[in-house]
Design brief:
TraB/PrgY/GumN_fam; alpha/beta; TraB/GumN family protein; single chain; YbaP-like; globular; 16 helices; 311 residues; six-stranded mixed sheet
Length: 311
């Protein structure tokens, strides 16, 4: 269960389909171990001003969803903030609700045995969310799993780094943009069999009563800013591993191309799921292959140190 939860929390908010080819002349860039930080400066390759890359966790206990002085400085000194989708576009965010539902009027009961369906229904009857189960059972199962992941966090209030960043960015008058649309990110789940998604949801519910430190581990790893460990946690899931090109790598390649185009004219902060940053096909290395210099920047939410970001 830790593995599918890691996927949901670190990289499942928005997913892309379109792949771009890497620049062959830069293919020799070595994928070295990454420094333990979520914040990276993008410079070189003719840029007049640096841009930045930040790895998020989509659902966190509110006490952990905090800005550092360095991240605040980055927001103040860049012109735009890009998330996976444009979170400030209410029309798009509200319109995304129609993409959450399964195609063909399917319901969870169509995908599971009677016993497994009862197990899921009983869980949400005993642990109700803000969305009634009668509506939820028409959702793509991975979206239901994301609600389950949030419920399991042992804290009274939850938040996401994206929301915290956006609130501060809007306060500073920054424009909010998205690397892809809500329709695009929702449609990717149609490429994963609904039956596979439903079976993973049942596994998550089966594991709830098993004494485990899984979710604590996820939050601890995010606090440690160990991108390599985050990558390992996501890649251990066999079912997800079979679809990594579709779910992660193709999307990273697409983003790297878009980021290259955007930062040539405008310094920006790009805040995306932390699992998208590390690895040979992670956004950090893909930008290096394009000729950019990626420099780790200290991100310490409890330590005041803006000087690091100014370097």
């Amino acid at each position: 269960m830790k593995k599918i939860t890691a996927f949901i929390l670190f990289c499942a908010v928005a997913l892309g389909l379109y792949a771009q080819k890497s620049n062959n002349k830069s293919a020799a860039v070595k994928n070295e171990p990454l420094a333990n930080t979520l914040l990276w400066k993008i410079s070189g390759h003719g840029l007049a001003h640096p841009s930045y890359l930040f790895g998020t966790m989509h659902i966190l206990c509110a006490d952990d969803a905090q800005l550092s002085d360095s991240l605040e400085y980055v927001i103040r000194t860049t012109d735009k903030v890009y998330f996976e989708i444009d979170m400030d576009n209410m029309m798009e965010m509200m319109g995304a609700l129609r993409y959450i539902r399964m195609n063909g009027n399917q319901k969870l009961a169509d995908l599971l045995s009677e016993g497994d369906y009862k197990k899921v229904k009983d869980y949400f009857t005993k642990n109700p969310s803000m969305i009634p189960f009668s509506m939820m059972e028409k959702f793509k199962p991975y979206f239901i799993a994301s609600l389950l992941s949030e419920q399991k966090m042992d804290c009274p209030q939850k938040d996401g780094m994206e929301q915290v960043i956006m609130t501060y960015a809007k306060k500073k008058g920054k424009e909010i943009k998205g690397l892809e649309t809500a329709a695009y990110q929702a449609s990717i789940f149609d490429s994963i069999p609904y039956k596979t998604q439903a079976d993973e949801l049942v596994k998550m519910i089966d594991s709830i009563d098993v004494k485990s430190n899984d979710d604590t581990d996820l939050e601890d790893v995010y606090r440690s800013q160990d991108l390599t460990k985050i990558q390992e946690m996501v890649m251990k899931e066999d079912d997800i591993n079979q679809s990594l090109d579709l779910l992660l790598y193709n999307r990273n390649k697409n983003w790297a191309v878009k980021i290259n185009d955007i930062i040539q004219s405008t310094p920006c902060l790009f805040a995306v799921g932390a699992a998208h940053l590390p690895g040979d096909l992670g956004v950090i290395n893909l930008l290096k292959k394009q000729g950019y210099v990626l420099t780790p920047v200290k991100h310490a939410p409890t330590n005041k140190n803006t000087q690091v970001a100014r370097k």
